[in-house]
Amino acid sequence: MSNISNFVGAQSARISVEAAIKKAKDNDNYHALLSLTEDRALERADMVDRGEITGKLAGVPFIVKDNFLAFGAPTTAASKMLEDFQAPLQATAVEKLEAEGAICIGKANLDAFAHGGSTENSAFGVTKNAIDQTRVAGGSSGGSAVVAALDIVPFALGTDTGGSIRQPASFNGVYGMKPTYGTVSRYGVVAMASSTDTIGCFATSAEDVALVLGIMAGSDDKDMTTLPDFFAENTQVKPGQKIGLIKEFMTDDVDSVVRERTTQYVAELTAAGHTVEEVSLPMLRYTLAMYYIIVPAEISSNLARYDGVRYGYRAEGVSTLAELYGKSRDEGFMTENKRRIMIGSYVLSSGFFDAYYQQAQKARTLLIEQFNELFQTYDALVGPVSPTPAFGIGENTSDPVKMYLADVMTVPASLAGLPALSAPAGTDEAGLPIGVQLIGRQRSDAQLLALAASVEVN
Ligand code: GLN
Q1: Left (φ > 0), alpha (ψ -120 to 50) or beta: where does 116 sit?
Q2: What is the structure's pLDDT at 458?
Q3: Domain ranges for the chain
């Protein structure tokens, strides 16, 4: 069921946009948003109403994670480092949506620089789960997931480097997808780890996710890693698919209710005429270790640009250049940002590069080979998104390793550049949402979404 279609061609874009802004303000207590882009949004709504802007999303309000460069409010990446940063240009993804008439109404909270899995690492406060305010929203795109779940807007953009769209989608009971690496241009999005960063979205149906991704997809001269648009191919669900249930994700370490919901989803797939068999990827036991070497390495390189000279925050009262760099970085970054910069610098340093970074890259190649091998037989893989439903706010903050362990099911698809989505698969006894993950071969994104749409569980 598409929610976006209720907005397209609505009598008045101004009324739709005003209603969305009001709803955002009324739900302020979730702290899902860092800013509203109200003036610009209303101006654009009036242009739609006057027929000056048209397109497939004319008048449809949306929200972006605050690591997308967008006009109308600062782009903070939820960090003190970029607290006052006004984007000089807009991300390609935002430009493409605007070209179809969509209207950005605000910017959503995240873990600073997208480092995290709970939106507790924001410099501007924690976002609360849409279903239970004592629980985390998930992350790092927690704010975007919550605004989609609260139906403030019919879709919201996020980024997913190791699970940051899929896990919060699962924690808040909405659809969320990271497409094949390179599907959507990363130009104008604050970089985290360039070899796994992807742009994707949240919505309340798989159809809406497909619509938005289809608009954003395609090659961009400003991002050399983008692929030509393949989204229009294979949009009909292929009957009688062979699907692999990932055995390593169904062990006793995973909450029993998560396993039960996954098993029920598998039953739905079977009832829809697909065949599901258990499969194994032995390299999965090394993926967290690979991820937390490769990703910090790339972070340490990408975040080197924030030195207090060229961008963002600059510390006061320093007398040397080294002090300016050091103090600006110390005060502008959150603890988790610094931890990753330090791990990354360490694994890249001479003497440790061979022992850590290079080994991790070799292991990554083996993981990719194992996925490729499975995709010779299977059309898609299925499993949980997260070992638990949304955990309590503060529960994992004192133990970074425990927080990293929660990413075990989402990082594999990221390291292999595969499309992966989270689809709602029911709730636990307390009503907390649980998501199921579908992973496909590269460029099978539309097919994966069609599969999810054909077995919607409510
Ligand atoms: N939770 C993961 C991490 O902390 C994923 C983050 C992301 O995808 N941006 O790295």
Answers
A1: left
A2: 60
A3: 4-216
